[in-house]
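COMPLEX REQUEST
Ligand: MGD
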Amino acid sequence: MTMRTAGGVNVMPAGEVCISTASNVLGMLLGANTSTTTVNEIVNAKTLVLWGANISETYPPYTRWLDKARDAGVRIVSVDCRKTPTSAWAADQLMPLPGTDGALALGAIRFVLENGAFDRARVGESITGFELMEKGAQPWSVDKVAQATGLSEDAVTAFYRTLAESPRTIIWIGGCLSRYTNGLQSIRAIIALQALRDNLIGSGRGLLTMEGGKPEGEKEFVDAVCGPAKDSGVNFRRLLNTMKKGNLDVLFLNSSYRRYPDCTGVAEAIKKVGFVVHRGFFKTEEMDVADLFVPAAFGPESAGSHYGAEKQVVWRDKCVDAPGSCVPDWQFYRDIGRKLAPEIYPDFTGPEELSERFRNTVPSWKAMSVSRMRQSPDGLIWPQPEEGAQERIGTVFTSGTYATENGKIPLDLKLMGAFGWTPPKGNPHGADADKEYPLVLTQGKVVTQWQQTMTNFAASLAQFSRGRYVLVHPDTAKPLGIAHGDTVRIKTATGSVEAVAELTASIRPGIIFTPSHFTGTSPHAATRSKPINAILPNYWDRVSAQFNGVGCTLEKA
Ligand SMILES: Nc1nc2c(c(=O)[nH]1)N[C@H]1C(S)=C(S)[C@@H](COP(=O)(O)OP(=O)(O)OC[C@H]3O[C@@H](n4cnc5c(=O)[nH]c(N)nc54)[C@H](O)[C@@H]3O)O[C@H]1N2
Ligand SMILES: Nc1nc2c(c(=O)[nH]1)N[C@H]1C(S)=C(S)[C@@H](COP(=O)(O)OP(=O)(O)OC[C@H]3O[C@@H](n4cnc5c(=O)[nH]c(N)nc54)[C@H](O)[C@@H]3O)O[C@H]1N2
Ligand SMILES: [Mo]
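STATUS: Structure written out below.
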């Protein structure tokens, strides 16, 4: 609301750099840009595919649903280029080459089509552009898929048979799929596969995403208070260009810039902004690009609502007072908003009052009062237009059709480009492969760390960290003369970072993996490392502005 009263809609939510490729493609194809079902539904499926989703490390509480699903006889398949702690739940593990998931999914579509494992009438009434999908999948015979993904033909065929025979399948789309330059292709193919098998509506069917429980209503509320938005907002690439050209006067940086590939280049661009206000908790690298640092109150130091992956909204009371003069964001931005536009900006006294105003403005929140939330420690499931109405869990398509304009899935959207798969940019297996950097560098989350910053500054948390390690297959390490425990240098065309080598057969030869966390400004050795995005070039996925799978080398440091 503060940004809108200042005359723009230029807000970049953290979610945009997260899984926005998945959420945007879901939004365009199905009309619902979060999970299409709730996590409890996996026990009603016959097959659950964890497609690049490392649930055990990134959603530990949800492993209880994996337990229940396995006990109920659900076949769990993990598609991940390495074995992770999540693999312990999986009956099958596929380890494709990074960034080749789209080819794997297109091959599955071809297999289903060839074997007639779909209902032609149902497909006719629920999909437009069926011919384009057919054409796009045509080149992906099992041997071609095996070639592109590095999987054996037997493993690919077994996977396809499972998918073609399973009466109900849920696919959990991991964050990694949004982090390759061909992310849109992979996610579209997975959605199309689910659509073809009629696996999107009903119990035990659907798609889950990471962070997939976000309730809606935010835009409705802001529009109601500030009037409809006059321009269409900004995405990161446009913001970056604006900053580079020196065309931005003020930036509120409530987050890290280290989350973007080529983060050093991003920092240079931020330095061209007239006035930068950083609000955060720690003296991180962001201090160097900020003109003003205003320490923020931490979650437990303020009250407010939170949401979880089951679309549940919970109320959080304040636990401790914030130190010094730190104030929560609602207060900081309210005060600015009131100064800028006192005639528009509401004069609420606290989060309770703001929440009450919110639910009285947004119909889908009507029955979600602060007092009802307080009485329900495990949360109220959004939406709740009226008190006492049945809580809606399971599929979001309750009417039996998709939430798009005509109720169908538009596989013929021109905007998305030809239906097919091309290797990701910057990857040693792609067309633009740089022979000097033959290994594939992948990175992702580990259970002991949170994001780029949050767990790096407390000794009590750092004690659990294994620091910057790199997983390397013994076959990769041997010719390089690298032994377990050696300090090595991971080198890309744009920079290098040190790590401790962990030799393991849990990763494919030719691929290495290091955690995506850590910061150079951490006071603790165990969480101190140059940001990983400092060595990733500025190749972006069109939507999420993320990048994974770059070519690299390893050498003893
Ligand atoms: N502990 C912890 N939990 C978190 C977070 C955190 O920082 N720490 N962050 C939260 C957030 S914001 C998000 S978005 C989620 C993300 O949650 P996830 O998506 O589960 O996490 P990632 O580690 O990004 O990626 C998952 C897996 O993808 C694999 N992978 C990499 N490249 C490929 C590929 O090309 N194909 C396939 N099939 N697999 C590949 C990696 O080996 C990794 O195990 O986690 C949330 N939970
Ligand atoms: N290479 C690579 N890059 C990645 C990823 C990856 O896997 N690999 N993952 C991507 C993903 S999925 C995500 S979600 C992003 C996460 O990246 P970021 O969004 O940068 O995550 P954090 O480090 O948690 O940064 C949030 C910062 O905001 C501040 N903050 C937190 N809470 C509050 C608050 O209540 N008020 C205010 N004012 N400030 C607050 C804190 O200072 C905190 O450090 O990183 C992305 N970047
Ligand atoms: Mo994320």
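REMARKS: Residues 18, 175, 211 surround molybdenum atom (ligand 3) (CB under 6 Å). The chain is about 30% helix and 15% strand.
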